[in-house]
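Forum > Structural Biology > Help requests

Title: Can anyone predict the 3D structure of Cytidine deaminase?

Hi all, first post here. I have the sequence for Cytidine deaminase but no way to get a structure on my laptop. I'd be grateful if someone could post the structure tokens.
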Amino acid sequence: MSVLPLLIDEAIKARSKAYAPYSRFSVGAALSCEGGVYSGCNVENAAYPLGSCAEAGAISAMIMAGMRKIDAVVVVGGDMPCTPCGGCRQKLREFSQPNMKVYMVNPQGEVLLVRTLEELLPDSFGPDHLV
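Reply #1:
Sure, ran it for you. Structure tokens for Cytidine deaminase below:
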């Protein structure tokens, strides 16, 4: 995938902007789609459940740009693979297909794990089920 180095770079940059004063676990995400690359970072809140994930921020940026289909995602957290949480897996499913690749990288940009969305969210329910 030729856009992968750019996605990794953008996810690392996004991670550096994260607001994580409570967990001290910064996460960045970047996704590619036909309209370009969009990134986001996690944003915590003193009322813990009100925080937002990096993937959700990247999806919001993509939607604001008028795009609707994710081709690939990179998530960077710590030194171990940081997979999308369950809620973000479903959010990703809303805008991609089960064969979409999710790359988990470390802060140095090394790919630690690659999974399809189907592997992360088997037998998923998506918008195609409502048509």
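The mean pLDDT is 96. The radius of gyration is 14 Å.
Shout if anything looks off.
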